[in-house]
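Let's practice the habit of predicting before peeking. Look at the sequence and jot down your guess about where helices and strands might fall. Then scroll down.
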Amino acid sequence: MARPTRAGVALTILRFCLSTLPFLAVLIYLLYTAVQRGNVFQNEVDNDALFSLMDIMAVFLSFHVVWTVFAVYLLVFVPKRRYLLDRYLREGERTSGDVIVEDPTKNSGPRCLISRQYGYAIYSHPTKTEPPVVVRKKVRVYQPFTRERIQILRLPNRPLSGQAKIDIEIDLSKMRTERDTTLGYVSAVSILWVLFTLAGAAFSVYQMSIIPEEFLLQEENLELARRIILVVAGINPFFAFIANGVRYLMYYNWMVHTGATIENEDVARNIKSNNWCLYNDDDAASFDGSDQIPYSILGEDRSYAGTIRSHSRSVISKTGGTPERQSEMTVTSTDDDTKKLKALPWTGV
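Done guessing? Here is the structure:
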């Protein structure tokens, strides 16, 4: 993967900082309100027209919790995820299998809002051989098309942990690039937000302490505010680690332990579109998405729509004989508004 330029890194960091400016503007306004609230008894301003300092403290503490969770996510969860992916490349057992991807152009409804793309890895189970079964596992993909006879990596003694080797390499490369470029800056900004929001909450409590009791609003309670900020500031780091720990355990379980073992390989390949879209056009799409590859390999003026009859080649390893080979591949090419049907010899992959 090409390393991003300094201008690209700076632009990414600038976009992240600009995205936080609306929240910063609101919090600065609340700080200004808290300062004015401290002078209310001198200027004889109507108390009913002012924000409650308790409410201001609650807003700052809410932001403090969110930014703490995000900062721990960047500093703890991301490195642990990167380490898990690196384990696949260092310790992974290799096998051969397929990755079936649904056509992303057929997504509709709420599903279209998801930027990540997923597919299904299908490979033979390493230990269940009598009768032989295959594993079907949902995986994240970075190449949005169906691939056959590719390398699948499994962690030792984890038969359901199969992941496509090329997708692991792309994901790990992206994470390493982010670590060496933007991750440090984004983490630093997040830590500044953690400190700023905690300081804003503490300032609200301080303002309550300098205002005479007769000028405090009905909902403002200094002792209660002190207890709240101490409890939140003390528990928040543990909560952030627990929340990110649960998130990592869910991710680890999905990567390593989830999957289905199916005896009939045709059933394993029978993958339909997800029904939680606004509509499900199963008649227009093949079950595994392999009949139409959603990109052109012949250039902008030539299209490719090939039918590769390779699903007769099982992913289950056979012993005691030579695996059957496909003799030809039929492709249809379109050039200058004319269609040509060709039968090309198939070579082993």
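How did you do? Helices lie at 6-38, 40-43, 53-91, 165-180, 183-210, 222-256, 265-269.
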